[in-house]
Amino acid sequence: MQTDLAAVDSRLVDDMNLEDSRPTTLIEGDDVEEVLSSISTVKIEPSYPGSVSRAVICDPVGRTIDAPYVVHDEAGLILLHLCDGKPEYLSSIARNLSKKGGSVRDASLVISRVFQDGGAPEQGDDIFIHSIGIENDFKIRISSDDEYVDSSSPSFLDFALAQGGITEYHLGGRYLPHEIGLSEFIKLENGCYPGQEIHARLDSRNPVTKRLVRIRCGKNLGGRLITEDGKLKIFTPFVDFFAHAIADEGVVDGVINHKGIDVEISTIHSAF
């Protein structure tokens, strides 16, 4: 089967304006960075309003629950969650902040976030998170103003699968951060966060060799692909010829032929 896959990429960049409706939280009070850092794999340092950090939250066995962008604001920290529902770990943050007079607020109806073509003009006082996606061609725009241009036709899931974005399929305690393009955010020196002992044991005894890859193919594949160099476990649905898989160390990037079908494999080094 032959498919013009280049046409798929082009649909994701023309006047792209994709609304992301996943939850947003404002945490406010004293020492909010310290409280968030206590459950994150990476330390969140105090910074100026408008700057952006990244947290990765794991369960006690070291598997990823959420990997929110953290926007520093005069009111506190804004968490742009990657999970579809309100995460349970917010209860722990709320308990710790309440001792210091702080609070956790749902900001989903107040703050909007949209994925845009990186070349689009920037406006007003909005905050932009740049260099998103495999080719670093996109950005996230966050604002309290919901007067955006009409959304483009591709869905957020289309975009995420094509560009290495994390979705609900990657979270929920299913995968280690190392397996889904979040290795750069694992900092073992950041105190005793949930899952830190597991990560330290892996680092010293049995380093994680599996990695997140993007698959592009003209036919929907499922389950596992066995190649001469190793196996790939496909764990997201195919949307517009794209899916994500966990690949063995020996699987190389490039085009392979699987039962007469060309399959393109690309490592996702840093998932957004």
Question: What's the short story on this structure?
Answer:
The chain has helices at residues 6-11, 32-37, 89-98, 156-163, 196-205; strands at residues 17-19, 24-28, 52-54, 57-58, 64-66, 69-73, 76-80, 103-106, 112-117, 127-132, 138-143, 211-217, 224-226, 231-234, 242-247, 254-258, 261-267.
Please explain how this structure is put together:
With 272 residues, this protein is an alpha+beta fold. It folds into 2 domains: 17-154, Alpha-Beta Plaits (2-Layer Sandwich), CATH 3.30.70.1400; 167-267, Elongation Factor Tu (Ef-tu), domain 3, CATH 2.40.30. 15% of the residues lie in helices and 29% in strands. It is built from 5 helices and 17 strands. It has helices at residues 6-11, 32-37, 89-98, 156-163, 196-205, and strands at residues 17-19, 24-28, 52-54, 57-58, 64-66, 69-73, 76-80, 103-106, 112-117, 127-132, 138-143, 211-217, 224-226, 231-234, 242-247, 254-258, 261-267. The longest helix is centred in the middle third of the chain and has 10 residues, at 89-98.
List the SSEs and their pairings.
Layout: H1 6-11, E1 17-19, E2 24-28, H2 32-37, E3 52-54, E4 57-58, E5 64-66, E6 69-73, E7 76-80, H3 89-98, E8 103-106, E9 112-117, E10 127-132, E11 138-143, H4 156-163, H5 196-205, E12 211-217, E13 224-226, E14 231-234, E15 242-247, E16 254-258, E17 261-267
Antiparallel strand pairs: 1-9, 2-7, 2-8, 3-6, 4-5, 6-7, 9-11, 10-11, 12-15, 12-17, 13-14, 14-15, 16-17
